[in-house]
């Protein structure tokens, strides 16, 4: 928008890209758009090119920018929640989240192959920013013995207790999934040191899954969700509405005021934490 | 149950199987259980082995058997919907369905690679029994140009129209996803003949995805859903209830009377048919 | 070449396509090039665009066309063997073959999940034209109980014998991999009828893997092989040579006269047939 | 062997495990076997159980143990090279290596999705102990802009030069694959600091792929190779031979004296380094 680099798209323009990870737009965080001058330039370019609305795929930062832009120029904006972290209020699923869960679970399946080979304890750190969605769901999905998420302060003693119980119950190896934003007070490497000190019988390994979680061919769920949200975003604009985020709530596509989406806090499913405690005995 | 072949299981018995497709139980359709004598034998064996409830993973057939068994012997039964076809009333997702969607979409992605190489029209038949869930969702997910499901009588003329429009819009190749139970009046091979007769410019290929759709390592969604439904099934029995199916309704685990699950009919999402019409232009 | 549709390519032109299946060239069998007029037009266009050599990725048909073209116009041509069928003389591996093997093995793994669930016999037909390379290697890789390839006339009696032995040895289900070009005298569906007639205890299913075998993201082996063959093709042309195919022979990139590549016949590894007989007991 | 924990295996004992990663044997490095007392116990147990030969799947450590054991007790031993690192003399491919290459390439494909989205430089560290096999092959396979292996001392200046050229040639993002044993004098994190200091325009990220490289369902190549090596190992023992490693040399299964396998050094393909320099411009 700031560089005036536009391209008209038709139905065929997205031909054969539904199976690709990443973005074909190559847009990224823009410092210039954070300045009034940047936004002025963007608005002039939009008007000059007869563009009359913005659909913003992103998270809180992008949505906040959209709200400011709308406030200044009355330019219609609709948000689509796109992040693997699932940490956006107003939708049960963000675009990319389901794909990331499958990527994480496949990676942990591979690590477990080596864990059961070699009698080890693995600390696996997954993404999620300040939210435990990925850790909790992928942890259950991967059959982790323990899941550490920022929403639950487990405490180091309880971790040791749990690992001891797991060992006693006959497990020869264990997987602990740790959310990157975990507030347990120690990071994965410090945790490793702590456990090795207290349970010297364990050979602890750390694996940080890293950026591969952000790519990959999208899952069917994400592709269908993207289609549903995209249709709703355009139809909402055609109805003359602005400043909404389209999202999935209880399996239905719903609108949430963009302001609420930005201010609200997505919650991990407390019931799922309970399920996780039961199945990871 | 009929052969008296039981095995006590603890928390460790399912260690390291969460990532496996298929069943470790190796149970299958039993003709003997359909007879009063067979069920009598099953009941005696259950009682003899101090088993006091049944959790049945399956579809309408298994649930009907469970209801009859409960009626005859007052034996507590809970059903868990397990089929890739997603054709069970009382749950938005059956176990295995999400995995099958990803398998189908990956297979069609591969076929599309060759379609764009060689200017072809592909008719791809997917599973789903009498329901179009897999075809509709995987069709959208795979970017199919046309989706034929039993719930919608498209008519052959509209199919030709749609293919002509797709060709005119610049697509050099097309994917048509067909549900196996499609009631369009012709099967995939007959459709091929019909289209080739009327659009000789197309080189039509047929691919029946077949049994690979029923296997494979489960998706994270299916693993988490299985954990949630399993916990609920056991807790429902512990509460003294019987004759319910546990299922997912609007993202929550809910109970549906087993009788309703058997009699009801799962519906494809009409809104999704509309989305599919829009995105597959 | 015939349409004069050229595009200059540099080192960056193939940026980020190494992971894609299919072809970005979208070239295909050309009837016009089979005529002297077509080739004349092609030659004129090549000369007009200052192109001084051809690298042909394909199989026998494309190479034959290249030889005729070279014969008529003394235009330098080098062939690169590209087909999933691995049926080209002068190379142990064609481009795409290793990827197809992995695709087939993954598909059969999924089918086996359902086979062990349900006590079945599966006939799985794989590609390979008149050669058994895919069937033999993927059959061993997938742990098939029996592999039927055109290079070996097994005879129907031996098939039944083998299935009976497999059953007697305790296998509850069996996978039979059949090459599409199998000369056993019956196709997969006729074989099914024959076996069911003679071994009614089996529930036989047929799966034709089909076109998905031709697509998908290439394996590391295929990507490295493509890089090696591409470099050698260009360097061979720079040395002033023509009418060679570059191929892999005993792990080294070697040149084979294109005429020999066309006339020769690739052989399945007889030793591998022996290994297959041993491991598939 | 030391614990006397044996299990007789027949043809059916490995039923349905060909698709699994990891080991079902759960054997691992044994300190006791490194002592004369441990080996004495092992020999007594073997004799007591009528076992008359050992097939050792492993690397230099396991083979050295086997040689000492044979020296002390004249007990027949045959080695099968099993490690993802491909660093064993006497075979072009070790078991697990091809699978690891595909795992690494798939992971880097995912990371590249995010790299092209966000204009970044990625340093990706892969396994390989002191050998660059994985880094070199997976680096070419993943289209890496630069590959750092212990066999080639690139020097930091040349790395910066190369990155600058890559940037100048129009690449918006770059992948650098680093072997874990790289002798460039800095590890991945130190390299990151160095590059960011000298090329502040880059946002450098580090990803250590880690233990997931050691697991996962084996590729078709690895499954076929395992079948071939296994058959040869047993047949070699039946011929009364001992102290050999079976391996793949120029596409044929060959014997190498176990002592040479232990003392020799596997070499990366120098020609491949040249290819990598050409294709990664």
Automatic annotation (TrEMBL), chains A, B, C, D:
Pfam families: PFK (PF00365). This is 6-phosphofructokinase. Keywords: Allosteric enzyme, ATP-binding, Cytoplasm, Glycolysis, Kinase, Magnesium, Metal-binding, Nucleotide-binding, Transferase. NCBIfam families: PRK03202.1 (NF002872). Its EC number is 2.7.1.11. The keyword Zinc-finger does not apply. Pathway: Carbohydrate degradation; glycolysis; D-glyceraldehyde 3-phosphate and glycerone phosphate from D-glucose: step 3/4. It comes from the Bacteria. The keyword Nucleotide-binding applies. Its cofactor is Mg(2+). It is an enzyme of class 2 (transferase). Belongs to the phosphofructokinase type A (PFKA) family. One of its GO terms (molecular function) is identical protein binding. GO terms for cellular component: 6-phosphofructokinase complex. It catalyses: beta-D-fructose 6-phosphate + ATP = beta-D-fructose 1,6-bisphosphate + ADP + H(+). The lineage of its organism: Bacteria, Pseudomonadati, Bacteroidota, Flavobacteriia, Flavobacteriales. It is found in: Cytoplasm.
């Amino acid at each position: 928008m700031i560089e005036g680099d536009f391209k008209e798209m038709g139905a065929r323009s997205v031909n054969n890209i539904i199976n690709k990870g990443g973005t074909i737009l190559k847009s990224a965080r823009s410092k210039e758009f954070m300045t009034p001058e940047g936004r002025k330039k963007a608005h002039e370019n939009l008007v000059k090119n007869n563009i009359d609305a913005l659909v913003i795929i992103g998270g809180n930062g992008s949505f906040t920018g959209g709200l400011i832009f709308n406030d200044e120029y009355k330019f219609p904006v609709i948000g689509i929640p796109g992040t693997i972290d699932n940490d956006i209020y107003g939708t049960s699923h963000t675009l990319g989240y389901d794909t990331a869960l499958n990527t994480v679970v496949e990676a942990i399946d591979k690590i477990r192959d080596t864990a059961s080979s070699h009698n080890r304890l693995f600390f696996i750190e997954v993404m999620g920013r300040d939210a435990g969605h990925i850790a909790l769901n992928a942890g259950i999905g991967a059959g982790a013995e323990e899941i550490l998420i920022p929403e639950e302060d487990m405490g180091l003693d309880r971790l040791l207790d749990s690992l001891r119980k797991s060992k006693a119950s006959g497990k020869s190896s264990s997987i602990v999934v740790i959310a990157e934003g975990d507030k347990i007070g120690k990071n994965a490497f410090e945790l490793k040191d702590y456990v090795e000190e207290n349970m010297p019988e364990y050979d602890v390994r750390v694996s940080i899954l890293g950026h591969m979680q952000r790519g990959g061919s999208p899952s069917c769920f994400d592709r269908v969700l993207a289609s549903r949200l995209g249709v709703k975003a355009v139809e909402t604009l055609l109805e003359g509405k602005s400043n909404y985020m389209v999202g999935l709530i209880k399996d239905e596509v719903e609108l949430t005021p963009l302001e609420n989406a930005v201010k609200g806090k997505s919650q991990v499913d407390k019931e799922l934490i309970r399920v996780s405690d039961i199945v990871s005995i």
